[in-house]
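re: that chain from earlier
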Amino acid sequence: MAKTLYLVMSGAPAPEGLPALVRLLQADDWTVRCLSTPMGQSFHDADELAALTGEPVRAEYRRPGTGRPLPPADLVVACPLTFNSTNKFADGHADNFAIGLLCEMVGHAVPTVVVPHCKPQLASHPAFARSLDTLRSLPSVTLLYDDQAPYESRMPTWERVLSTVRTL
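^ sequence. v structure.
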């Protein structure tokens, strides 16, 4: 039986493309639901992701009495997560649907893989280091980020993301 995985994306590029990650997760028997920050909608092909998952990419809170609620998540992958979204998540600033959902998943203790992706100049800001430390301290969060790697290879391959998902 397929388990439900929330793929939370923000406004950062994903060099291998998120559709490729969705396909890998689906091949591993995950039902993927894509959720986005407002800026993430302009970085990723929502139509292609919706075609792959059979569900629209959600970027807004559902109003009471409208639409269908999301099925409960068995796992969350937040990828790619920008400097801004990483800091918001770590600080609990739930000012949009996707970040609010990440904060809520911590409260539910849902295993969450976080894959930040930002420019080295932003990553060198002390707020980012504090945010990474905060995220590392959360029992349900697994952080995939190598601040020593060259910028071009800081994003893990989708195979590495998948292998991390398989361990949770």
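The CA atoms of residues 9 and 60 lie 13 Å apart.
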